Amino acid sequence: KTLNITKEKIEKNLISIRNFNSAIKIHNPNFPININPITSSLLFHYYCDGSRSNWCQSIEKHPKNRERYFQKIEKSIGKIINWNSKKYQEIYIPVIIYQILENLFNINRYNLTEIKFPRGFLKLGDEILLGALIAIISDEGNICKNHYEIRISQKDKKAIELFHKICKKLKYDVSSIIKVNKKEIYSFKIRW
């Protein structure tokens, strides 16, 4: 405000954004970023598989999943150059993207590990919740032996409770949440 430059003008003229420690840049970012199934999915990829302590996505993925992940970013946020380089096996997405997503979805962060989704999140609509569920299954899901169930597992009890609520809101047949012996892991199954 001191320079009398609006947020919209900065967004319009931004050329690229990146983390200080990353070669991955997002070119010509698509601002403003909106709530949609893809941004919901990106947010949940971050919470399921990301590093909450340093506010960046630092994960290794199967090559096809990695490609899909970057396609989501490019569809909703902006063009990425050199994401497929063998030199960069981890994904470091600019921290500002997750800060924007948290602000967009009105997420409260009390500290580096305690994150609270607003009550209204479950009312955002089935398409938004389905985007979140795709990320949850991709990052935390395993197909069970009988091939008719997907097990969702997570150490964070509050996170697994949120995942369970999302599935119930989408009217999936889900089991109760159980605590897996000795591992301090919570899980439930989605049946079809």
Question: What topology emerges from the helices and strands here?
Answer:
Elements: H1 7-13, E1 16-18, E2 25-27, H2 37-49, H3 63-76, E3 79-81, H4 95-104, E4 108-109, E5 115-116, H5 126-140, E6 141-143, E7 149-154, H6 157-169, E8 173-174, E9 178-180, E10 185-191
Antiparallel strand pairs: 1-2, 2-3, 4-5, 6-7, 7-10, 8-10, 9-10
What would your notes on this structure say?
Helix 2 (37-49) packs across helix 3 (63-76). Strand 1 and strand 2 form a beta hairpin. The chain has helices at residues 7-13, 37-49, 63-76, 95-104, 126-140, 157-169; strands at 16-18, 25-27, 79-81, 108-109, 115-116, 141-143, 149-154, 173-174, 178-180, 185-191. The chain is α+β, with helices and mostly antiparallel strands and 192 residues long. Strands 6, 7, 8, 9 and 10 form a 5-stranded antiparallel sheet that branches. The model is unreliable at 51-59 (pLDDT under 50).
